[in-house]
């Protein structure tokens, strides 16, 4: 006899909990809904219905991947960020909740820029630029990424979210080849030191592109590369916002100053770590 939807969720919850998944029941519900092609809020009404054979086979495949520490967002190919639904692929970093700190910091300066032009360096899924534009209707922007696959994903997300008319995405190496200056530059560059990457939990690193995580020997290589370029592409009254790793605020502030910026603000994430730096041209 086939399992019911409720039984499938209960069984998966127990299996995930056994490998220390702190979100075992939520993971089970999301993956079951994905196997059924439904939203999670539709599971209750289907709880006592048998799990269709095709869905049962798909769910077992999803379970095996989750038990191998693959994040649920990778399995279903989507991630919620800033209350928006983003498609992701192996070409993109999986958006982290901590990055919402940067979005909030940018939106806090809305009154200073009536119709801002934004540049998002290392755009990935486009989540930073698109989240800002959603809440800043007068803004427009460009997202740049070295990976053509990521640029395609970001453009598709913009189209799905109804923001394609205000956001363009280009393949590029930081600011190279850009023909304009910007009011606001935002970036979440790779900032994890190579030696630290090997010590992180498998689900945090194994399924993201290494180039989107690795900041070189000391975690600062991307900052050294992009900051001098960014200074040349920022308007005189512009601002730059950088996501940084825990404990990097002092060092990155020094790199900002050496590149012609004056640091003006630090923004902490929910854990209390400085996660975003704000600066203006010196």
Please characterize this protein's 3D structure:
There is one protein chain. This protein is of the alpha/beta class. It has 2 domains: 5-68; 90-281, Vaccinia Virus protein VP39 (Rossmann fold, 3-Layer(aba) Sandwich). 37% of the residues lie in helices and 20% in strands. It is built from 11 helices and 9 strands. It has helices spanning 5-17, 24-36, 53-67, 72-76, 100-107, 127-134, 148-160, 194-197, 202-205, 221-232, 249-258, and strands at 78-81, 84-87, 117-121, 140-145, 167-171, 182-187, 234-243, 261-268, 274-281. α1 (5-17) packs across α2.
SSE arrangement:
Blueprint: H1 5-17, H2 24-36, H3 53-67, H4 72-76, E1 78-81, E2 84-87, H5 100-107, E3 117-121, H6 127-134, E4 140-145, H7 148-160, E5 167-171, E6 182-187, H8 194-197, H9 202-205, H10 221-232, E7 234-243, H11 249-258, E8 261-268, E9 274-281
Parallel strand pairs: 3-4, 3-6, 4-5, 6-7
Antiparallel strand pairs: 1-2, 7-9, 8-9
Helix pairs in contact: 1-2, 1-3, 2-3, 5-6
Overall CATH architecture of the largest domain: 3-Layer(aba) Sandwich
Provide the structure class: alpha/beta
Q: Helical amount among residues, as a percent range?
A: 25-40%
Largest sheet strand order: 5-4-3-6-7-9-8
Radius of gyration: 21 Å
Cα end-to-end separation? 71 Å
Q: What global shape is seen?
A: elongated
For the record, the count of structural domains works out to 2
Give the C-level CATH assignment of the largest domain. Alpha Beta
Q: Total helix count?
A: 11
Strand content: 15-25%
Can you tell me the CATH topology of the largest domain? Answer: Rossmann fold
Number of strands: 9
Indicate the low-confidence ranges by residue numbers.
none
The CATH superfamily of the largest domain is Vaccinia Virus protein VP39
User: Biggest β-sheet: count, sense, barrel?
Assistant: 7 strands, mixed
Taken in chain order, the helices and strands follow as HHHHEEHEHEHEEHHHEHEE
What does the average pLDDT come to?
A: 94
